[in-house]
Design a protein that fits this description.
Shape: globular
CATH superfamily: 5'-nuclease
Largest sheet: 5 strands, parallel
Number of helices: 8
Distance between the termini: 30 Å
CATH architecture: 3-Layer(aba) Sandwich
Length: 179
Amino acid sequence: MPTRPRIYVEATCLIDAAKVDIKGAGTMQAYPAIRHQDVWVIQQVLRAARAKDLEAFTSSLSIAECSHIGEKPPEAKVKQLFESVLLSGQCLKLVESDIFVCQDARDLTWDHGLSLKGADAIHVASARSANCGEFLTTDDGILKRRDAIKAAVDLAVLRPSETQLLPDEYRQGQLLPNA
């Protein structure tokens, strides 16, 4: 039986997707067009994961990071959306930030010379722990270090729209709504 692709989804992608889901695509007007495409791809990644056509992971740290979509405190429907996506086990598998993941995060600096913020290092270490083939993010701080991360730990860091692991049937736009 062939193994399913394993994709890591960093928290910024989930926050953007939640903004669009709750407030509509108009909330992303200030962002470049590529970010709109990134949101669509993340929605497709979550659909594919729910259908068991791939495995999608994120760090348990994302529970704390995905706390609002702009307004504080967030509306009840924002809380419910994040709870259902992050805690249901239907779309995303959580990687626990245990001592081994935290040591790996630290060692990205100590052993590999990577300069990442603490939470970003936890995300990279979590993707490595889950043996993910791709790390999807819209975080510019991580994207700026994509080549260094690839060279140091052989992890492909990509914008969601650059994924190569999303199955072809999820790359097609929908012609008819709700079809």
